[in-house]
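In these records, each integer encodes one residue's backbone shape. Here is one protein:

___
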Amino acid sequence: MHAPGVVISIPVRNEAELLPRLIDALAGQDICPSLFAVLFLFDSCHDESVSVASAAQQTCGFRMLKAHLPDGPPNAGRARRAACRHALQSVPEAQFLLTTDADTLPSPDWIRRNLAALEAADVVAGRISRENAADLPLRCRQETYLERLHSLRRFLDPVAHDPYPSHPSLGGGSLAFRRKTYEALGGFPAISTGEDTALVAEARLQGWRVRHDRSVHVLTSARTLGRAQAGLSCELAAFPAAAEAILVPDPDAAVVHYQWHNWLRRQVMGVGPLTLPAEFNLAISPARLSELRKAAPSSDAFVEAVIFETYKLPELSLDRAEQRLAQLEAALLPKAEAA
């Protein structure tokens, strides 16, 4: 029997209906079940979630751990932070921490793909797809646009640990950390929503290598009545019904930023001119650039610090932005990719 090198933390709040399929998906992972443990953190559950997990504990094949939070209002950050804390305390030998959601379905190679990605990164954000995505076609169009824009970003501003085409997802439905990285970051912030995005942003600012790996994939529910305050379900329920009401980043402005980010990255590595090119006049002084450069522990951290201060893109309607992005892809990407 191998000691688990991976521990998976999963906050659970009244998920008796969907929990069985998650347990089955974890039991069906394509690595030896002795290599990982799973901790379920039951957060103010008033349904049969605990009973469902307990019934599967003896037959699931992996080491299952359980912890509880007392009753309280929904707070996604509090629950995920507690789940990760209990997971790491319960499995001190684990060197890798993964987290997902109780309404999410990891692909059979999810753990293995995360571990492979962590060989070249400190944090891995998996690609998150929604069930029944066709029921919200405008949301699908928006997500596809943002994914294409992010791929263009990685083409224009390549990063070794986050190779093109990458993807833009940052959700807690699929995040993986080296243990030392997670502990150095201090854990997820105990905020009601957005704890996943906040922690990944902090990782970048501290110079940790963040990888958006397309091969790491999960499928999450598309329900519009959710568990977290202002979470994905609320966002889906409030999504506009008309394309002209959907605003997305202007791709022309984005391209200028992406080219500038690459210039900045090259500056840190000592490549290229030392003066700010005129075409990158983006409301930051050379003196401030110098300050950020000296303070940054890595080129990625430097660029992320500059992005944090300057990355405010104008917006266009989804229709116009899609048309313009297609033109930019045709002009900038290799023909096979643009097609």
Observations:
- The beta strands are 6-12, 36-43, 63-69, 96-99, 104-106, 123-130, 175-178, 210-220, 247-249, 315-317.
- The longest strand covers residues 210-220.
- The two ends are 49 Å apart (CA to CA).
- The chain has two domains: 6-140+162-239, 248-338.
